[in-house]
Amino acid sequence: MNQIKKAGVVGSGTMGAGIVQLLIQNGHPTVMFDINQEAVDRARTGIEARLERLVEKQKISVNELTLAKELLESTTDINAFKDCQLVIEAAPEKIGIKRSIFQQLEEICAEDTILATNTSSLSITEISGQIKKPTRVAGLHFFNPAPIMPLVEVIQGLKTSPEVTETLIDFAKKINKNPVVCKDTPGFIVNRVARPFYNEALRIMNDQVASVEQIDRIMKGAGNFKMGPFELQDLIGIDINFATTKSVHAGFHGEDRFRPHYYQERMVQSGSLGRKTKGGFFSYDE
Amino acid sequence: MTNKAIVIVGGNLLAKELLKSFELNGCSVFLNDFSKAKQIDVVIETTNVDLEQKKLNLQEIESVVSPNTIILSTTLQVTATEAASWLRYPERLIGFATFSNFSEGKVIEVAAALQSDTGLLSNVKETFGAINQEVEVVEDEVGLVYPRILSLIINEAAFALTEGTANAKDIDTAMKQGTNYPLGPLEWAERIGIDDVYAVLIGLHKQFGEERYRPAPLIKKLVQAGWTGGESEKGFHHYQNRRVKEFSI
């Protein structure tokens, strides 16, 4: 079985940087790549600051901090992935960008390097479609914030080999995550099964059955959900939530169960996107 | 605390849990028995899947209690308005919706039928207050809020299981750890009774006439087989393991 000694991450945005932090915190030498130096430097500073805060909170030791920093190699040269046994792509959710990255990776990396994508909305099979050896491509879907959320979805494209799936399951366990295995279906498990939590809440609210406040109170008070569907949309970003629903709906070719609600689109159009705009379904003025 | 006499009518998990809960809280409560109390103040009818039975139950209740006895009726498959339409004195019916593990939470939803005397709502609040449940009054619609949203989440999990997207355990783990649900949807369904979840789904499907609410065929089959979780100890997991065994011979 493929031993993963060194890992690489493509992209230094929220998810990319989160995955990098997770890997170095768990003792894995990691290459972080992004196309411009400024982005890479910003991500590195952010990761180091978060690790330092963990030292202050006594969650990790000073030694662990020093080691983690040493394990991180940040670069704008994609060739730095050549000695990685696993590369996790966390670039923007555009099929063209992802395909071009995978084509570069298959040129640069060894033949048995596993090429994984952290996509939450695209099909693994589609991303690997033009790759010479699609058996080595799989999904490795982390949840935000990656260092904290315990789940990883290991997604098998139509051609992913069982060995690659096994290696990723083992790797996920080594970095202290709980892997679940799923097929390459729209939204995988979490983003699919969670759709009604938001979508039906919107429908119930818009049909005047209950108010936003009431629905959140009921789901927490009767169902023991930690957050109500509306405060959770505000936290995630209503635009992000709407985009996920649209993508799952499109992935199922318009299946009615996933039809987005026009009210959610109105919220996005209004610019009230949730906490990040200080207002969404609830107001967050200081 | 209430000193009202309550009769619960029904044979599902919810009926049994309501009985247990009212008893624990020192109430005078009886299951499917009108002969023990001299005057009955509240009757709670909980049948959800078999609507013919529900209708018979409600009409029988009406024939043995006085015209001003409050009848609380579950609105999992039908609205309170539809249930009230089966009565001679529809104004005394109030709808409510919850599942059998309600005692793990603190809120029960209540809805007045269009025909209801809304003055009865304070009485209903007091009744559920006796089992430490707050009341949220919402508009009358099939499944109200929590049973409706949860049933659709369970329905989607059942579709995903049917398609082999993942196994039952992984679907449950994913929802607990990827988005912080208190229980996985499939284990949740087995705990509250897959039959009551099915009742909500067929009720919504009929009420709105939309494909969106179509029950997963797997849920329908489990109900037909009697593999509805709860006391039967058979449900999604049993179904899946049975298949695995069959194919691994």
From TrEMBL, chain A:
EC number(s) per entry: 1.1.1.-
Pathway where it operates: Lipid metabolism; butanoate metabolism
Keywords: NAD, Oxidoreductase
InterPro entries: 3-OHacyl-CoA_DH, 3-OHacyl-CoA_DH_NAD-bd, 3HC_DH_C, 6-PGluconate_DH-like_C_sf, NAD(P)-bd_dom_sf
Molecular-function GO term, any one: NAD+ binding
Stored Pfam families: 3HCDH, 3HCDH_N
Keyword NAD: yes
EC primary class: oxidoreductase
Annotated site residues (Important for catalytic activity) in this chain: 141
Residues annotated for NAD(+) binding in this entry: 11-16, 34, 93, 98, 120, 144, 276
Domain 3-hydroxyacyl-CoA dehydrogenase C-terminal: 187-284
Family annotation (Gene3D superfamilies): 1.10.1040.50, NAD(P)-binding Rossmann-like Domain
Ubl conjugation among keywords: no
Biological processes per GO annotation: fatty acid beta-oxidation
Start and end residues of each 3-hydroxyacyl-CoA dehydrogenase NAD binding domain: 6-185
Family (UniProt): Belongs to the 3-hydroxyacyl-CoA dehydrogenase family.
UniProt-recorded name of the protein: 3-hydroxyadipyl-CoA dehydrogenase
Lineage: Bacteria, Bacillati, Bacillota, Bacilli, Bacillales
Gene: paaH
Automatic annotation (TrEMBL), chain B:
UniProt-listed Pfam families: 3HCDH (PF00725), 3HCDH_N (PF02737)
Pathway: Lipid metabolism; butanoate metabolism
Domain named 3-hydroxyacyl-CoA dehydrogenase NAD binding: residues: 31-140
Protein's UniProt keywords contain Ribonucleoprotein: no
Oxidoreductase keyword on record: yes
MF terms in GO: 3-hydroxybutyryl-CoA dehydrogenase activity; NAD+ binding
GO BP annotation list: fatty acid beta-oxidation
Keywords in alphabetical order: Oxidoreductase
All residue ranges annotated as the 3-hydroxyacyl-CoA dehydrogenase C-terminal domain in the record: 143-239
Domain of life, per lineage: Bacteria
The protein's Enzyme Commission number: 1.1.1.157
Gene3D superfamilies in UniProt: N-(1-d-carboxylethyl)-l-norvaline Dehydrogenase, domain 2, NAD(P)-binding Rossmann-like Domain
Membership in a protein family: Belongs to the 3-hydroxyacyl-CoA dehydrogenase family.
Database matches in PANTHER family: 3-HYDROXYACYL-COA DEHYDROGENASE FAMILY PROTEIN, 3-HYDROXYBUTYRYL-COA DEHYDROGENASE
Protein name from the UniProt record: Putative 3-hydroxybutyryl-CoA dehydrogenase
Organism: Halalkalibacter krulwichiae
Gene: mmgB_2
